[in-house]
Design a protein that fits this description.
Order of helices and strands of chain B: HHHEEEEEEEEEEEE
CATH superfamily of chain C: Cytochrome Bc1 Complex, Chain C
Structural class of chain B: alpha+beta
Oligomer: heterotrimer
Order of helices and strands of chain C: HHEHHHHHHH
CATH superfamily of the largest domain in chain B: Rieske [2Fe-2S] iron-sulphur domain
Distance between the termini of chain B: 71 Å
Number of strands of chain B: 12
Shape of chain B: elongated
Radius of gyration of chain B: 31 Å
Strand content of chain B: 25-35%
Helix content of chain C: over 70%
Strand content of chain C: under 5%
CATH topology of the largest domain in chain B: Rieske Iron-sulfur Protein
CATH architecture of chain C: Up-down Bundle
CATH class of chain C: Mainly Alpha
Number of helices of chain B: 3
Number of helices of chain C: 9
Helix content of chain B: 10-25%
Largest sheet of chain C: none
Shape of chain C: globular
Structural class of chain C: mainly alpha
Mean pLDDT of chain C: 93
Strand order of the largest sheet of chain B: 1-12-11-6-5-2
Largest interface: A-C, 85 and 91 residues
Number of strands of chain C: 1
Chains: A mainly alpha (about 290), B alpha+beta (about 180), C mainly alpha (about 220)
Low-confidence stretches of chain B: 5-9
Distance between the termini of chain C: 48 Å
CATH topology of chain C: Cytochrome Bc1 Complex, Chain C
Mean pLDDT of chain B: 80
Chain lengths: ~290, ~180, ~220
Amino acid sequence: MAHGHKSNEKVVFVGDSRVRKKTKTGPSVPPDYSSYPGKSEAFIPNFLLKEWMVGVVVLVGFLVLTISEAAPLGYPADPTNAAFIPMPDWYFLFLYQFLKLQYVSKDYVVLGTVGVPGIAFGALLLAPFLDTGKERRFYRRPITSLLMIMALVSCFWLTKQSWDHYQHELEITNTIPEHILREEKAEEAAKKAAESGGGGEAAEVEVPLVDKDDPAVELTKKAQCVACHGADLKGNESSGIPSFHGIGDEYSKEDLVDIVTNGKNNMPPFKDKLTAEEIDQLATWLAKQKKPE
Amino acid sequence: MSNHEHKDNSHRSAMKSGMSRRQFLSYTLGGAGAFMAAGMSLPMIRFAVDPILKKKAGGTWIKVVEASKITNEPQEFKFKIHQVDGWYVSDPELTAWISKDDQGNAFALSPICKHLGCTIAWNTEKNNEYVCPCHNAHYTKDGKNLVVAPKPLDEYDLKIENDWVYLGPVKANTRVV
Amino acid sequence: MLKGVYNWIDERLDITPMWRDVADHEVPEHVNPAHHFSAFVYCFGGLTFFITVIQILSGMFLTMYFVPDIINAYKSVDYLQHKVAFGGIVRGMHHWGASLVIVMMFLHTLRVFFTGSYKAPREMNWVVGMLIFFIMLGLGFTGYLLPWDNKAYFATKVGIQIAESVPYIGTYIKELMQGGEIVGAETLTRFFAIHVFFLPGALLALLAAHFFMIRKQGISGPL
């Protein structure tokens, strides 16, 4: 191999390393942009300073956002929660909504999940090889620009549709998104703790059912309470279905009679399914469900 | 072999015998590299894809509800199954919508929407249909897909013994042709 | 003193040319927001990198408390957000930063697209940039599951169901992503590994390639 030096070229290394010893030449000058119009300037510190000014503004806005808006956290995942309305993160909404369209769902779902997105993202990935003209100005290459603008408009439109549909679903099912519900509950609890003074971090204790053998327990099965409130009658906090355990602390017997008779929020009225005596019996038992002192 | 004569040749004159010393070394290097890459990654890849290759356990019958409780109107029933999820063994609750058809035969539908896997519910829009909150898929009482969803709702195997309803593994819907 | 240390290192490793190359290269006027305010559109790439650095750092710190296990994941997130000092802010940075990265990257992509900067000889850099885009979306998808709340669980289920509708290999993709037959314990550890090791590893390699190519080719000329 011919990697010996020519004898007249004197390269001096540092010790026995391959690092060249400094010569007296000045700093290396990279090629400038003298062919471009206007004044160019060095990257560090001149230009970077301007970019960091923009960075500072963005960071301040970002920190204000993180401090003012807590990251959402709902309730622990419960695979049996039938009432939960799933929503992907906002930047997937356009794809999520797209899959609801008639010709990409049902028998054509493959077209929706693989076909159209595959072509769209494939075209985006290979854009330089599809749009090979020399022209760079967007208004001089109308087809490319128009395709992109149409794609953008449909993405925005689909995202908005998806969000509106979600809001609509929340409304007709009378649901509050979990992370909001959870924050409200936490605030209430904090307020209560502050009022009662001390205690503060009262650990959540399992409240046992009072009078488990009461004949009213049979009524909860007969009236299909268990269908929503669960076989253990603990409800489903994340769906806004209250637990029966300790419910006597929250409602009086009169309230309970009213709720069972006429319904509340998502709960249907039971006046046709149960007799007045049965409702009374049930409410009496429910009103006894208090936390042990 | 022919390697022998290469020894004496400088690489400039080696072309005639088919493989130069340099080529031979490059191939050997490539081979050794491929062996090292495969030796390293094969165990890892087998490790990563294990879930696909594991044998699936067969289902068992779970006692769910008394047969007399089943009505023509679909009702939601929860039942516990024994589930082994890797290292995590649990007895989660599953949900089935059980109702009787006109002949009085009970059947149980899975609440997983066949469109994209959300959870459906009966009659939430007061039209005697199963409705999915995600993409507005609708199903009849038999689980027949009306809009959006590509397939009818899955069905649980169901048997009635001693006046109790037992549910088995999920299968494709048999009620809708 | 510092200069002495620098000279000592420089003599042995000859590092001056490396950073001088980065520091001294000239930046043309048409991308300089100090000269033309409209040139701020050229900042989106740098801002994307800035937010990415925030994401990597906040993510590293979050793993000090987070446990990728279905029993404890939710509890650990709840704890780090509500009980640890500044936990709300650090998790907030990671959560909102994820959205901001997507926004910035989106704007950066649009800038490159509408200025035609992806054209020859910069085709490869565009392709690498798109791969970075997909990796970021993958990070978003895998990261969404980690708090293990209902939103995370059900969104992931829907996402996996979408992957399952791919013909022929759909079921395998699904089981490979889930690490089993259901979205559960093994899905969470899998997503955690992908979110924390695999995708960031690929991301760093692609970012290095992206920056190397920018430095090598220089910025695209004025329109």
